[in-house]
Amino acid sequence: MGIAFTPRHTHRTAMRLKINLPGPFCPNRIHGIREDSAGIVLGSDGKVEQKMTSTPIAVLICALSAGSFTTEQIFPHHPLHNHSSSIVELPGGDLLAAWYRGSGEGDADDVQIMGARKSSGAEQWSDPFILADTPDHPDLNPVLFLDPRQRLWLFYSTPLDNSISGVLIKYCLTRKYGNEGPPEWEQQNVLHCRPRNFEQSYGDLLKEIDAERAEDIAQNPKLRAICEQQKELVRTKIGRRLGWMTRTPPVTLSENRMMLGVYSDAFACSIAAFTEDGGRTWTFSEPIQAVHLGCIQPAFAQRSDGALIAYMRDNGKPKQIRVAESQDNGVTWSCAIPSDIPNPGSSVALLTLRSGAWLLVCNDLKKGRHRLTA
Predict the structure, then answer these.
(1) At 128, phi and psi to the nearest 5?
(2) Coil, strand or helix at 61
(3) 3-state secondary structure (DSSP) of residue 123
(4) Is there a contact between 86 and 100 (Cβ–Cβ < 8 Å)?
(5) How does DSSP assign 91-111, residue by residue?
(6) pTM (whole model) above 0.90
(7) Is residue 155 a contact partner of residue 142, using CB atoms and an 8 Å limit?
(8) Cα(285)–Cα(310) distance, integer angstroms
(9) CA distance 216 to 212
(10) What is the pairing mode between strands 95-102 and 112-118?
(11) DSSP code of 285?
(12) Separation between Cα atoms, residue 139 and residue 171, nearest integer Å
């Protein structure tokens, strides 16, 4: 199993952390996380089974499964901004990593989706190459995924006007990835988002926020401005349909049904996108939301009773991983509530093992990203 991550204190070097655990894994891959430390293993009911909050990850993995870990550099120090990594194992054992690189993030028009490949049995990664590039626009948050039909997906997000409310999701799809270098994309398309019942559901949330957080809004000009912007955006089709971004890999719910988590920084909430025909058509869930906002970048797993669980980054308060549940195959969701796991406002990753247990990867801190929990 491979994890691509950016070392703490810098976004200019990419690394890969390799964790070897006995037994087979399902095809989803953990990605986009940072550095070392302790561990959490969840049972198929979503409850914490084991937690070691001060054990180095090498000891943790050995203690849980007699495994091992190594780290390796994907590329050396680079002067530009490199961030938001993803990794996938291809048939035959090659590894493909992706990240974005540029002079900034959404405010810089030179940001590209970069990639590198490590051939099976090779000692080093290839030189980086371009995976996707929208000329004179920033491309952000790449997500790589290999579906059950062995098709390689690349999702990424393009801010059309350099703002969080003007983002468009794009994706590429191919079976032509066997040669060295970048894949040859057979399909490229836009994922046009139309969240289900969003105007009504999010409008009701804004009324709750006005009632329950009146004092916060009165005392916090920034929060007040955010809420006013959200009220304007939710009233318009373009406001509801733009601004959605990717961060975590999709999960397959059946042979044909794939669920992708997407999120909006403008609305500070998430939704699920579904396709059953290989991306030709998409449907969407109702929002995954909470009065304290900030529940973004959902990572999904399915519980043994069929319920879907979303674990999310907390970009609001109280700086704890948010959790929501769906009993109808991801169409509607419970209110996102704080878990007991701290979160400093960084993404989380969730992997379902063949045993049925879940492996959650995160920075289990309320401030900083210098400790990794696996």
Answers:
(1) -60, 150
(2) helix
(3) coil
(4) no
(5) TTS-EEEEEEEESSSTT-TT-
(6) no
(7) yes
(8) 13
(9) 9
(10) antiparallel
(11) P
(12) 11
Amino acid at 105: E
Q: Which tokens hold the place of 258?
A: 């794939």
Residue-by-residue pLDDT tens, the chain, 374 positions: 555 555 544 566 666 555 444 333 333 333 333 332 233 344 445 444 443 333 222 223 333 444 566 778 899 999 999 999 999 999 999 999 999 999 999 999 999 999 999 999 999 999 999 999 999 999 999 999 999 999 999 999 999 999 999 999 999 999 999 999 999 999 999 999 999 999 999 999 999 999 999 999 999 999 999 999 999 999 999 999 999 999 999 999 998 999 999 999 999 999 999 999 999 999 999 999 999 999 999 999 999 899 999 999 999 889 999 999 999 999 999 999 999 999 999 999 998 988 889 999 899 999 998 888 88
Q: Residue 253: is it exposed, middle or buried by C-beta count within 10 angstroms (0-12/13-18/19+)?
A: middle
Task: Please identify which residue in the block is written with the tokens 């790449």.
Answer: 142
Letter for the amino acid at 252? T
Picking from 123, 92, 23, 33, the residue whose alpha carbon sits closest to that of residue 64 is 23
Close Cβ partners of 64 (under 8 Å, ≥ 6 residues apart): 39, 41, 50
203 contacts 279 by C-beta, under 8 angstroms: no
Residue 55 contacts by C-beta under 8 Å, 6 or more apart in sequence? 37, 38, 39, 63
Q: Give residues with Cβ within 8 angstroms of 297, minimum separation 6.
A: 247, 248, 261, 263, 270, 312, 313, 347, 348
For 1, 15, 177, 265, the CA distances from 89, given in Å and listed in that order, are: 8, 15, 11, 30
Q: Six-digit token pair at 92?
A: 């035959």
Q: Which two tokens stand for residue 32?
A: 């986009």
Residue type, 309: I
Query: How far is 289 from 337, CA to CA, in rounded Å?
Result: 9
